[in-house]
What we know:
It comes from Polypterus senegalus. Residues 126-193 form the CHMP7 winged helix domain. It is found in: Cytoplasm; Nucleus envelope. This is Charged multivesicular body protein 7. InterPro entries: CHMP7_WHD, Snf7_fam. The strands form 2 sheets. The protein has a 3-stranded antiparallel β-sheet. Strands 4-6-5 form a 3-stranded antiparallel β-sheet. It has helices spanning 2-5, 16-36, 44-50, 61-70, 77-82, 101-109, 123-138, 150-156, 164-176, 206-244, 248-305, 311-337, 343-359, 380-392, 405-418, and strands at residues 41-43, 74-76, 119-122, 147-149, 180-185, 188-193. The chain starts with a helix and ends with a helix. The protein is mainly α.
Amino acid sequence: MGFLFSAFKQTREVNSLDWDGKMEFWCPLIVNTCRQRSVVSISLGELNDIFRRKGTSPLGLGTILQDMIRRGKLQKESEFAANVDAGWISWGVGLLLVKPLKWTLSTILGSNRVPLEETYVMIDLVKEKASELLQVYRSSSAAQRALVPFQELRAIAADICPDENTLCLALLQLQREKQVNVTLHDGEKIVKFTQHGQSRVSPVGDVDLGIYQLQKSEKLLEEKIEALANEAERCKEEARGLLHEGKKTQALRCLRAKKRTEKRSDSLYAQLDTIHGILEKIANSHTDRMVIQAYQTGVATLKQSLKDVTVEKAENLVDQIQELSEMQDEVNQTLSGFGLDSSGDDLDLEAELATLMQDSTPDGPSALPDVPDKPVFSNPARVQSEEGLVASLPAVPNTDLGITEEELEQELNRLTLLE
């Protein structure tokens, strides 16, 4: 531990093993620590507090941060934000968008020290966080809307972005990847994400802002209607209680207030229905626009495919095909009518066939050998042995087997049924 907490040599060439050993230990540890804390930026002062042991902080953390900056693993938070969009400067809460004076002076004087308060962004971690944020948005109910208020997005991403600074950095990375677009509208921060089927986000236009205003009004009306419904129910219960107490006049007053609340609620319902109708027509118009675009693409493709095709060319091709078909028929007829006079050959073939038939007819009985009138066994000893074998066999039984004709008939019928 004393070796790891000690300072680096002035240069790596002095002791490369010492230098590389500390780097291989501290760099992954810093990254994993930030990942466990769900943060994507860190400063030297925070690292000193995190890794403080027995009142002592590692002496080489500044050198480690410089090495990570040189290898592109770290970038100053101000430079990271400025490289994406200057518009973020106006509302990037929590971002150090102005270089600290100490850093500027140390750069001018040629010092390589890292200021304690300078915040650095870990490039790999901010990319991971940006991907998580995009997945959380697409799995939420807000994915049905093109524009999302920044405060609502904070609530959606509370589990993966513990503070506003981390959320801003993740959005900056998504904006760098062309996945989000951020704008200010009437002092409100609005975020637009890419929708399904889009490779990159489109700029926030007047149509998007108009739909956002309608959706915002819709949500506001729903909240007011719910509040009026609760108010009407409260007036009703209060009137019931006053009636039980015998305070009829006050109960009537509560009922009048209930009627007025219900009337206001009905009016808001009508306005809400109008907004619903407008939003539905806008959604249908988007569908119609997609269909029209598909038609236009189909017509353009069809025109391109029929670019060199005309009616005259088609008729010319049909005439040529007809002429070639007629020519082929004439050729086939000519070839089928062409033949040699083969009547003489046919007569010769008939005569040869008659000769073959005569040769195949037998003239008399076949010359077969006579039937022998003596035993076929020519060896007397073999004949005697075979006679002895036959004599040794048991006699053929001539007794009754004990089976009657009726039993045989029954067995035959059973076999017939089985078949």
